[in-house]
Specification:
The strands form 2 sheets. The chain has an 8-stranded mixed sheet, sandwiched between helices. Strands 9-13-12-10-11 form a 5-stranded parallel sheet. It has 2 domains: about 240 residues, Rossmann fold (3-Layer(aba) Sandwich), CATH 3.40.50.720; about 100 residues, 3-Layer(aba) Sandwich (Oxidized Rhodanese, domain 1), CATH 3.40.250. It is α/β, with parallel strands linked by helices. It is built from 14 helices and 13 strands. It is about 30% helix and about 15% strand.
């Protein structure tokens, strides 16, 4: 790929706010001691409006450090609730927050750091109707957990002329970049966006999620801290931002690398990063896979075991996932083998087939593959093994 020109500082995103009070000078004295920052930059931070999309593994450290840095307004976008499996990496939340909306837990954590921060809670999943709310902010940080939202945020930032700090984590690997698809004329910033790195989302089922493959929790802190640092630089106009560059972390080797990125180049030359927590909504097709609820499935399995109608229950998850929680009697058949056809011979045609995964995304993909290959009686478990734990067997673990 062509090496981009060296990019120095960019103009600060916001004007300075009111003079600092004596208490504020004491609070941010370590910033004021930095010649590159000083009081004017701190006043810019206090006058800044930053939207953090996702209050999970990356959003947690981002929100903590931006609140501590003195950002005046923080918008938090998330429609999820805190789960016990989040606590391994989402350090903004605690045991007492399990079951609470993440925006509420995150807002409380920010208030504990600085009660003067104006926190705006957006408890929703961004879509074409709601993504315009990003226009209320000076800067967007994307720590989201699925490909549709990542591309929605990128495209909205390009349309609105907003810079975006982007991060991705999976297992022991991570990536961080700054995008600005439509910088102001005369700013000296060359346009660059997510679609220059990855022109289009991957096909459903081709890239595992962190819920399937795992992620090192502490690495989220590393990446989130880098993202927060980039935000401070952009807001205040100091340093050289990660425009035209992608930082790549190999945590196992303790090595950061830098990959140049040129705007306007749409060659699909890179592998997609995986995402944090969920694979996102499945692709829709004209042929649907019938859904069965957890309680209905439990009743059918009990009837089968008592000599009633037969069925084959197929678990399309990875082996490590099955070691955490499993539905008794499920037969493991990897999703990849159903998608490429190599494992089709492990699925029976003479009985009804019920597929399941963690949440219902991958099992629907597997069901579509079976229907396309000629199977007729195919269903998948709505809500996946999570629904099974919630409704049938709460003694097992969620993840």
């Amino acid at each position: 790929m062509t090496t981009p020109p060296d990019r120095g500082p960019v103009p600060p995103l916001v004007e300075p706010g009111p003079p600092l009070t004596p208490a504020q000078r004491e609070r941010w004295s370590r910033h004021l001691l930095l010649p590159q920052l000083g009081e004017t930059a701190q006043r810019r931070l206090r006058n800044a409006r930053v939207c953090v999309v996702g209050a999970g593994g990356l959003g947690a450290p981002v929100l903590q450090y931006l609140a501590a840095a003195g950002v005046g307004r923080l918008g938090i976008v998330d429609d999820d609730v805190v789960e016990a499996s989040n606590l391994q990496r989402q350090v903004l939340h605690g045991v007492a927050d399990v079951g609470r909306p993440k925006v509420d837990s995150a807002a409380d954590a920010v208030a504990a750091l600085d009660p003067d921060v104006d926190v705006v809670r957006h408890r929703l999943r961004l879509d074409e109707r709601t993504v315009g709310l990003l226009g209320e902010y000076d800067l967007v940080l994307d720590g989201t957990d699925n490909f549709p939202t990542r591309y929605l945020v990128n495209d909205a930032c390009v349309r609105l002329g907003l810079p975006e700090v982007w991060g991705s984590v999976f297992r022991f690997d991570a990536q961080v970049a700054v995008f600005w698809g439509s910088p102001p004329p005369g700013s000296g910033v060359a346009p660059v966006q997510l679609r220059d790195l990855f022109p289009a989302p991957p096909a459903p089922g081709t890239v595992p999620s962190c819920a399937e493959g795992g992620v090192l929790g502490a690495m989220c802190g590393q990446v989130g801290s880098v993202m927060a640092t980039e935000a401070v630089k952009l807001l205040t106009g100091v340093g050289r931002p990660l425009l035209g560059r992608v930082l790549v972390l190999d945590a196992l080797a303790a090595r950061w690398a830098e990959v140049p990125l040129v705007g306007g180049v749409r060659a699909p030359a890179h592998r997609h990063p995986a995402t944090d927590d969920v694979a996102g909504p499945p692709a829709r097709t004209d042929v649907g896979v019938r859904r069965v609820g957890a309680r209905d499935l439990a009743a059918r399995l009990a009837a089968r075991d008592a000599g009633g109608p037969d069925l084959q229950l197929v678990d399309v998850r990875e082996p490590a996932e099955r070691a955490i929680v499993a539905i008794p009697g499920a037969e493991p058949v990897p999703l990849a083998g159903l998608l490429d056809g190599s494992a089709l011979d492990r699925v029976r045609r003479d009985v009804p087939v019920v597929l399941h995964c963690r949440s219902g995304v991958r099992s629907e993909q597997a069901g579509l593959a079976l229907l396309a290959a000629g199977w007729r009686d195919v269903e998948h478990l709505a809500g996946g093994v999570l629904a099974w734990v919630d409704e049938v067997d709460p003694s097992q673990a969620r993840y």
